[in-house]
Write a structure and sequence with these properties.
The chain is α/β, with parallel strands linked by helices. 38% of the residues lie in helices and 14% in strands. The relative contact order is 0.12. This is sulfate adenylyltransferase.
Length: 512
């Protein structure tokens, strides 16, 4: 049953039409259906005895559901733009934890004098996330109070008392040896990166117990073996968590030829302002872009224009942190995305492409809240969400780990995301009658072909062509090159293994 808040925050999609989208903090006429729903809901929550309250609440929720259906029949043209200017960051101010130039020399001199903690590649990705304000208003790795709020409430209470979404714990694990090396009297700790260089100073820190089982169970909803992020990062991590205020010595760079795509939230906001954006809609992905994705993004822009916006800008925002081994690596995905823009599948004039530095958890409805929240801090006020966002197959059973519809449902109700407008996917598939991707029409389902990621990978590995119109030719060629490079690596590995396993021939000794 939809809540009133959910009604106001979700741009639902019917077969052919999107519903009207109302402001997140509206002013209603006292005689409007929306106001009546609010009054009814408030009365339900404050009525006399428990039975009356339950009955009233059911009636109020029914009224809210009816309102959602009525809204679904309205035209988008009846609603104008929601706001002018970019959405404010969580907490009101975008956090920047990179040491100012005036203090850099002093901090660089201080870092070697402090107890140090070596951090992993994934820890470094979280330093990157925190330093640029993606997790605003968080100012460092979580202390215990913040960790418990994130773990149990998927949100934290900021200093001004407002609630902000924070569904993923951003924490730094240390082991017993590291804990002892810090000592009891230290007031600050230097974090040393994988390359052996100091990257940050953590001040006013606290150390608390890392209950890994609880963390895994509450984040993923299961403790089954085989969860990629858990196996890569948590399972063998330390039994303690180190939280505190972070001072990052230098802007994080990867020197992989992709740093020019790694725009910070502040840089993205500046770019949106430069382009005079009056709406920003974000699309998160960790896979190559096919023409079905492009159809969805271009159709979203069309819908926003029909709602009265003048210049909606797309943030095409592939995830750039840790991903599981069978995902297409970032460098190949960026090559493919470039081809999508070069060949005009997406309009470069209305698209900003950048890398989101967060590691991937594959934690479904819990993680998709983090993905959405971070885009608010980058200036996006619309977020496109599809089937099974941030999901994966169950690691030990032949089924999805999460209900594929729960991600978009959770986003419409999530605490601290009330300002964000959710845009659910329409389902796109290959229309055989038109030779292109189109929105699925169940009335003629036999005309549509669904091409799974597995099928696409198999085509690329074998060098086969996909149906014309499924993906731009240049983008498809990038994927073919990637998967065929894997085939060559596997062939070479197989040959090496065969040589190593071949029986050695012992020669007869040479007579003296």
């Amino acid at each position: 049953m939809a809540t009133v808040a959910g009604v106001l925050r979700v741009l639902s999609v019917s077969n052919n039409n999107a519903t009207a989208l109302a402001p997140c903090s509206p002013k209603f006429s006292s005689s409007s259906p929306t106001a009546a729903a609010f009054v009814s809901l408030r009365g339900a929550l404050t009525s006399g005895n428990l039975r009356e309250r339950s009955n009233s609440l059911q009636q109020a929720m029914g009224q809210a559901h009816s309102l959602q259906q009525q809204m679904g029949q309205q035209s988008r043209k009846s609603v104008g733009p929601i706001r002018a200017g970019l959405i404010t960051p969580d907490g009101g101010v975008l956090v920047d934890l990179i040491v100012a130039d005036a203090l850099k020399e002093k901090r660089l001199a201080e870092a070697p004098t402090l107890p140090h903690v070596n951090i992993t590649k994934i820890d470094m990705e979280w330093v990157h996330v925190l330093s640029e304000g993606w997790a605003s208003p968080l100012r460092g790795f979580m202390r215990e109070s913040e960790y418990l709020q994130a773990l149990h409430f998927n949100s934290i209470r900021s200093m001004d008392g407002t609630l902000v979404n924070m569904s993923i714990p951003i924490v730094l694990a240390i082991d017993d040896v590291q804990k002892e090396s810090i000592g009891k009297d230290a007031e600050a700790v230097t974090l040393v990166g994988p390359d052996g260089e100091p990257v940050a100073i953590l001040r006013n820190f606290e150390i608390y117990k890392h209950n890994k089982e609880e963390r895994i169970a509450r984040t993923w909803g299961t403790t089954a073996p085989g969860l990629p992020y858990v196996e890569e990062y948590i399972r063998n991590s330390g039994n303690w968590l180190l939280g505190g205020d972070l001072e990052v010595l230098e802007r994080v760079k990867y020197n992989d030829g992709l740093d020019h795509y790694r725009l910070s939230p502040a840089e993205l906001r500046a770019e949106f302002e430069r382009r005079n954006a009056d709406a920003v809609f974000a699309f998160q992905l960790r896979n190559p872009v096919h023409n079905g994705h492009a159809l969805l993004m271009t159709d979203t822009r069309r819908r926003l224009l029909e709602m009265g916006f003048k210049n909606p800008i797309l943030l095409l925002h592939p995830l750039g942190g840790y991903t599981k081994a069978d995902d297409v690596p970032l460098e190949w995905r960026m090559k493919q995305h470039d081809k999508v823009l070069e060949e005009g599948v997406l309009d470069p004039e209305t698209t900003v492409i950048a890398i989101f530095p967060s590691p991937m958890h594959y934690a479904g409805p819990t993680e998709v809240q983090w993905h959405a929240k971070a885009r608010i801090n980058a200036g996006a006020d619309f977020y496109i969400v599809g089937r099974d966002p941030a999901g994966m197959g169950h690691p030990t059973e032949n089924r999805d780990l999460y209900n594929p519809d729960h991600g978009k449902m959770v986003l419409s109700m999530a605490p601290g995301l009330e300002r964000l407008n959710i845009l659910p996917f329409k389902v796109a598939a290959y229309d055989k009658t038109k030779g292109q991707m189109a929105f699925f029409d169940p009335k003629r389902s036999e005309d549509f072909l669904f091409i799974s990621g597995t099928k696409m990978r198999n085509f690329a590995k074998s060098g086969e062509s996909l149906p014309d119109g499924f993906m731009c030719p240049g983008g498809w060629q990038v994927l073919v090159e990637y998967y065929q490079s894997l085939n060559k690596e596997q062939d070479n590995d197989s040959k090496v293994e065969q040589v190593q396993q071949a029986p050695k021939v012992l020669k007869d000794p040479v007579p003296v």
